[in-house]
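re the bet — no i am not wrong, look at it urself. input seq straight from the record:
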Amino acid sequence: MKNKIILITICFTVGNSAFSQITNTSVKDTEVDYSSATAVQSGSIKLIDNQGTIKYLQVKNGITSLTNASASAGNETVTTLSLGGVLSTDTFIDASASGVVFGLKGSDQETGNAATSSTLNTSGYTLAVFDEATGEIKKLLVSALDVVGASDRFVVAATPSTTYTVAIAGLSLTPGKTFVFRNGVKLTASGTTPDYTTSGSSVIIDASVPLFSGDIIEVQYIN
C-alpha cells in the first residue's frame, strides 16, 4: 500500500506541472481488485485524501479523481488532470533516450491556405519545426521553403575577360540551393572546375564558361 500511495503522489506532482486542470463528469471505472488473479487493467483505484474523503483514481487521457462510487454519469464530483489547456510553466518531453519515440497518430491531411506574415496567429496554416538549440516547437511559414528568385535575370553587358559575377542582395547562396542558367542552358556547380560558385549573395561564373554581350543569365534559388 505504501508503494501505491507514493505512485499516486508522483502522478499528481507530474500532472500539476505538465497538464491543465479541468472539472468535468465521468463514469467510474470498475474498481481494481488486487486480490483477483485477473485484475482489471484500466480500472479505478480507491484511496482516501487528507480530509478523510473516499475517492477513486482512474486514467483516461489524463488522471481523473471521483469523490463517490456511483456508476451513473452526472452523480459524481470529478476533477480531471487532462491533456490540453493553458500551460503555466515551460513543459518539455525528453525523447532523447535510445529507442524512445514521441509522435502523433491520426492527424488529418491539411490542404488549406498557408499562413502569411500578416495572418500569422490569425488564420492559415504553418509548418511545425524544432529549435535545435532549445528543443522548442516553433512555427515556420510555408513561404520560407518556396522556390523564389526565378525572375532574377541578368543581361551580360560586355564580353567578360575573366570570371563574371552577379549579386542578389539579401541572400546567402549555396551551390546546392542555387541554379544558374545561361541562355536557358543549366550550368553545373560540380566537377574539378565548376561552371559557377557562390559567395555570400553572389554567383561567380567561371572564366571557362564562354559569355558574350547580350547573354541572359538567370538565377533560381531556394531559401
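see?? Residues 147-222 form a domain with the Immunoglobulin-like fold (CATH 2.60.40). told u. also The CA atoms of residues 130 and 199 lie 28 Å apart. so pay up
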